[in-house]
Amino acid sequence: MKDFFPSGTPHFEDENIGFLDIVLCSLFGPHKAQEEALGLKIIDPERHPLVCLYSSSHFWGISHMFEDMGRVITSDGEAQEQATKDLFEKLTVLEEGMKEFFPRGTPSINGENLGLLDILMCALFGPYKAHEEVLGMKTIDPERNPLLFSWVIAITELPVVKESTPPHEKLVALVQFIRQNALQSSVA
């Protein structure tokens, strides 16, 4: 990364987001939730300061939704209530922003024009039915967030997404596994 950022500070604009950005965001965006769930340090700021700076830059605001969703899945009680509240606040802000950019509703989505945000929203909320089944609550709701919900549905209905998405039962098992392990490790 030092070769890419000789000044030591990554800078992001919509026009220069590339493959490295997508990969690093996918891997390290939700690192705090992953660290909390696993009980391991994933990014050590002393050993990897640029990765830490990169993953916490202003562009990765969406990563906070990953962190909140991770906390919703891996916590109980008051901590889960706070994580849910934080997630819903961010979803409301995103919904309002979408209304400004897309006053006639959800943007047109097909397999040819998926962008970074489409991919991230699919990764985060594509398994919303599994989240609902395991958590007993709706993380994304057509009444509370109609544009976001219709956006996620449009993405998950794409043939390429349908083909690459694991069966519902496997998603439920994965979310249950993550939740149970996190709750057990927080008790120990």
From TrEMBL:
<dbReference type="InterPro" id="IPR036282">
    <property type="entry name" value="Glutathione-S-Trfase_C_sf"/>
</dbReference>
<protein>
    <recommendedName>
        <fullName>Glutathione S-transferase</fullName>
        <ecNumber>2.5.1.18</ecNumber>
    </recommendedName>
</protein>
<keyword id="KW-0808">Transferase</keyword>
<dbReference type="GO" id="GO:0006749">
    <property type="term" value="P:glutathione metabolic process"/>
</dbReference>
<dbReference type="GO" id="GO:0004364">
    <property type="term" value="F:glutathione transferase activity"/>
</dbReference>
<comment type="similarity">
    <text>Belongs to the GST superfamily.</text>
</comment>
<dbReference type="InterPro" id="IPR045074">
    <property type="entry name" value="GST_C_Tau"/>
</dbReference>
<keyword id="KW-0963">Cytoplasm</keyword>
<dbReference type="GO" id="GO:0005829">
    <property type="term" value="C:cytosol"/>
</dbReference>
<comment type="function">
    <text>Is involved in the conjugation of reduced glutathione to a wide number of exogenous and endogenous hydrophobic electrophiles.</text>
</comment>
<dbReference type="InterPro" id="IPR045073">
    <property type="entry name" value="Omega/Tau-like"/>
</dbReference>
